[in-house]
Sulfatase-like hydrolase/transferase
Amino acid sequence: MSIPRLSLLAAAVFLNSSHHAWSQAPEPITRPNFVFILTDDQRYDQLGCTGNEIIQTPEIDKLAAEGVLFGNAHVTSAICTPSRVSILLSQFERKHGVNFNSGTSVSEAAWEQSYPVVMRKNGYYTGYIGKNHAPIGKGGYESGVMEKSFDYWYAGHGHIRFYSKLANDIFKGAKADTEVEILDEGIQDFLANEHTLQGARHFLDERPDRKPFCLSICLNVPHGAAVKEMKQKESDPEIYRSLYRDKDIPFPRNFVTWDSIREPKLPADIHFPEERQSGYNMVSEEQTLREMMIRSMQTVTGIDKMVGNLRRTLEKKGLAENTIIVLSSDHGLMWGEFGLGGKALCYEVCTHVPLIIYNPKDKSTGEKRTSGELVQSIDIAPTMLDFAGIEAPETFQGKSLKPLLEGKVGSVREHLYTENLWSTQFGNPRCESVQDKEWKYIRYYKNQNMRASAKESAAKLVGMNINSMLYAVHDPDIALYRTYVEGPLNGEPAVYEELYHLAKDPDETTNLAADPAHSGQLEKLRKVWELEIKKARGEGKPEIHRYTNDSMAESGGGTFHD
């Protein structure tokens, strides 16, 4: 593949900042390298180090044992796009304003304050490998802004699928056919600094020896849309064909099939679980769910092998002692708890994710290897910048965990705030929650969305493509979404509330909101919610672009991605 040439100005800037490798002895790199690994839909309990006694994740377990495992880490929004934008920008969705139903993309101005761009501006060589599910710039995924923001790009937009070559031409030069192994080739190519992998795009001929790097690896597994495609092909690695198939895989606690529900988890007028996306219908059939659980666990083991390969390569290249590794997921997933499937709620199984931070220069042992402090996905970006010695943008809402990791502070926050603004025809309600280490409060709003079944019936009536009816986002949806954002701040009342004593009821089985004995706790957390939602919204207008099917049609762009 031909390498894009630098402009004369860019080349001059690069050569000046590099001090001509051939005329001066290299200076040692003092700032740390970073590798950030983000999995997709991975439940907290899908690792050996988080208590799963069946799954095989020895490499990630070792990473946790040598680093710090945060046992109380949560995302800000339990659905892919807003969660990933929140990680990139260190902002709550209520501030950045981008979701599948928002009709918007991240503006170039907002993107300039993302952690990859800020790190690149401050002398880091940046790479992105895997799945991008954050629409950036005018035209979203088709703007080209994301690709141009990195020195090394080996990724696709939207779902890159388990057999990634079928969806993304960029991966067709890989030897492997399966996602994790294809991305592993990209990782090895990035670290080898030889750039021989056909398809990968890079701005410079090679990574400068004296520049620290930040590599973001974002996966599409164990997301159900990806693992559903697994075919157990002869060419697939053995783990994807036979692993765990001889095991008795237990269902989650509080699992019930759809037809066994006696009392719905949420009132029928605010949550329509029967309208959920068809991909989550597996919770209605035990055998189908068990198969999806096996495949999900197989891909997590595949990720584990990728992590092992990464660490061995870092060691071989003398990079291990100066590379911080961060591993997390964009959110969890319900596997039939209370008969529910999917995500986009504020329950622990949706928002609670694994978070591991490994700093090779931290040689602490024992109890410091785990933390029960309240941390969030928006803390990842400021933490990396803090370790890099880079001042975080004022737009960041997360907190650096570096002082916590170094034992300089005991905690970074007293309460966590999470939210769901993805309330659509698929039945999910708008909700927000606040929690401390012992209690959680969730509030819900009136659900007036048209149901998916009604849209499907209309599409069939007129011979229309059902997915176009269900997933197209049009300009009026922007206005509707903005009422979702601002309504609660302008006095919109909650129509249902939940209160859980997490210390005694971690599975959130017993709602205590109507119990007079806990009215004081309920009122206390209502006041906390009032403060936290204002902080989450922040000041000023969101920095966004219109990004709807209407706008794409006007611009002559291609298909809108969902």
User: Anything to note?
Assistant: Residues 1-26 have pLDDT under 50 and may be disordered. The radius of gyration is 23 Å. Residues 68 and 405 are 8 Å apart (CA to CA).
